[in-house]
């Protein structure tokens, strides 16, 4: 079994070297092709015809050139035909990678570094012995450019995948969930009973488990509203008690005033006949005069 694995690994390495060599050959051929000037497909311009003499005889008077057609404003047409620009995409907010995300990125960097380290100049030169013998510097430049291109392209693709899948944030959430699970596991004593698997619970327990979070939130909200209502009722009760005490005081004062008026009426009732007689005498005296 180890011999079969070693052979398969060696065969994979040979296939990788062949692919890299073929890519390098195509890339070097592309560089050589780009360095040569492209052939000109345009034919030479024809010779200019000899100018003909203009007949200016009276029978053939010179004609005025045709008046130019009125040009329409092109700016208005372009402005009308131009479509509305699409809204700009939302700016990506980078997230600081946690421990797991940092380890994932580091593992990718190490894997890429080890992969590109196999594209050495010796392996590259073995695929192109003629170029390595006559132009080793050019081959070194091609090998370096190829390695740099592969590294840059891999990094860009990896970063695009990270941004598209939002892996850093999700790995941070996974790390938070694992930390929360460890914390809850540490809070339970060692002799605590084993938790019941969720798939073995009855439907009523599962339904209650799903309904408990929203019901707990609603209960807390209603409890806060009830507490506020109770405080408002207490304030209103205190205000009503103060108003009732004030009303009782006003009624007591009013009762005192009524008692004073009744006492005054009683006193006037005793002296009223005498005052009436004196008033009549005074009227008679005034009438006799």
How are the SSEs placed, and which strands pair?
Layout: H1 2-35, H2 74-81, H3 99-117, H4 121-127, H5 129-134, H6 136-165, H7 167-187, H8 203-288
Low-confidence spans: 20-44, 46-62, 64-74
- Order of SSEs: HHHHHHHH
- Roughly how much helix do the residues carry, as a percent range? over 70%
Please tell me how large the radius of gyration is.
53 Å
Subcellular location: Chromosome, Centromere, Kinetochore; Nucleus
Pfam family, one: Nnf1
InterPro entries: PMF1/Nnf1
Keywords: Cell cycle, Cell division, Centromere, Chromosome, Kinetochore, Mitosis, Nucleus
Polypeptide structure, described:
There is one protein chain. The chain is mostly helical and 289 residues long. Among the domains are: 95 residues, no CATH class; 70 residues. It contains 8 helices and no strands. The N and C termini lie far apart (160 Å). This is Nnf1-domain-containing protein. It is found in: Chromosome, Centromere, Kinetochore; Nucleus.
List keywords for this structure.
289 residues; elongated; mainly alpha; Nnf1-domain-containing protein
């Amino acid at each position: 079994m180890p011999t079969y694995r070693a052979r398969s690994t060696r065969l994979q390495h040979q296939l990788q070297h062949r692919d890299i060599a073929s890519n390098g050959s195509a890339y070097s051929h592309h560089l050589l092709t780009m360095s040569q000037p492209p052939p000109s497909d345009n034919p030479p311009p024809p010779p200019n015809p000899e100018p003909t003499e203009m007949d200016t005889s009276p029978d053939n008077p010179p004609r005025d050139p045709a008046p130019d057609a009125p040009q329409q404003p092109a700016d208005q047409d372009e402005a009308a035909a131009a479509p509305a620009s699409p809204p700009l995409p939302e700016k990506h907010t980078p997230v600081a990678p946690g421990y797991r995300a940092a380890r994932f990125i580091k593992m990718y960097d190490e894997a890429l570094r080890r992969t590109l380290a196999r594209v050495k100049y010796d392996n590259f030169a073995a695929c192109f012995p003629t170029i390595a013998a006559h132009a080793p510097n050019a081959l070194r430049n091609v090998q370096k450019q190829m390695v740099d291109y592969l590294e840059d392209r891999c990094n860009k693709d990896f970063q695009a995948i990270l941004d598209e899948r939002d892996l850093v944030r999700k790995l941070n959430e996974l790390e938070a969930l694992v930390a929360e699970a460890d914390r809850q596991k540490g809070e339970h004593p060692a002799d605590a009973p084993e938790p019941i698997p969720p798939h073995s619970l009855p439907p009523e327990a599962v339904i209650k488990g799903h309904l408990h979070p929203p019901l707990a939130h609603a209960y807390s909200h209603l409890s806060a509203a009830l507490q506020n209502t109770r405080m408002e009722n207490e304030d209103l009760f205190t205000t009503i008690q103060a108003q009732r005490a004030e009303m009782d005081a006003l009624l007591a004062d009013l009762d005192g005033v009524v008692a004073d008026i009744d006492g005054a009426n009683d006193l006037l009732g005793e002296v009223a006949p005498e005052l009436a007689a004196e008033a009549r005498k005074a009227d008679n005296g005034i009438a006799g005069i």
